[in-house]
Amino acid sequence: MEEDKAYILRKILTAVSLVLIFATAGLLAITTQLKTITLNYYGNVISIKTLASSVEAFLLQNKIYLGETTNIEPSKDSRLLNGMTIAISSDNEGSFDIESIRESYAPIIASVKEEIHTIPFEEETVNNADVESGTTQVLQEGVDGSKEISYIVKSKENKVIQKDEIKSRVLAQAQNRVVEVGTKVSRSSVVTSISSQVVDGGFVAYNIALPVEQQQYAYNLCKRYGVDYPLFIALMFRESGFNPSVSSGYAYGLCQIAASNYYNLNSKLGITDLFDPYDNMTAGAYMLSIYMGIAATKTSDYQTQIVYALNSYNMGEGAYYNNCYSQGIIDRAYSNNVLATRERLINTGSI
Which of 233, 185, 228 is CA-nearest to residue 212? Predict the structure, then answer.
């Protein structure tokens, strides 16, 4: 029994010895194949250890790629020998210094930055029919909100070259400014009475930029003051182009009533707002009727009376009489324009 154990032990020791011999032989073979190569890469010389057997295998192992104009010595198909020098250069590219390139290279640095931005408040208008037109009141003051925006910022040599938003979150909602605007219109007694009248069969609704209800009011207004209806429509077009909110700086509304006439018209007619189309038309028709009455004292010719009234409306009765009518100048460009518009309105129904 003892002899069997000794026999088995001798076999194990023999096997281990054989493994060590083969392993040592393998390491010896690898060591003998390991080569030290000097690489001259465009003037930069470094030492590289390799197991490659050819120059081409060495290049692939070290990820060195050659262009069409690159020179290599020895050639790629040469056998690689220990201590060999491989020189790589180019007639076009010349040599370069890796260190100097590294020093001059400016890397692009990316970073995430957060900024706080203002969310501006907006103004919200609330109409109130119980408050007089033209009256405003701030119900709530506006407050700006804020939000945080995150950006990815790319910089080169301390200068931002790209900035992209990646996310945002609201820190505080903006609070709108709320303004109450009165829309209630207080009509004068004259406007109220004329508005309540029903138009008769002589009314014509023209194809113009004036609402039919305002045309109806103008028709009844002209009947009240004895003014020619299509003539009055033509005058309004000449003065404002039917824009009730137009202002020339001293005259206002559809009929371009001068501000200097406001107090007189307010006391006689009760009008309060020269931008209100009904107040404005009332003032315009009334003034045209006054000028027609003055013209009747100057001439019995109705056509001349119309021209006199129109030019007086345009430049003032005294100025027209002294500078034009008394000098024999009856027609002017203004009156000619209004009369031509009147004829076009009658003949075509539009302007």
Answer: 233
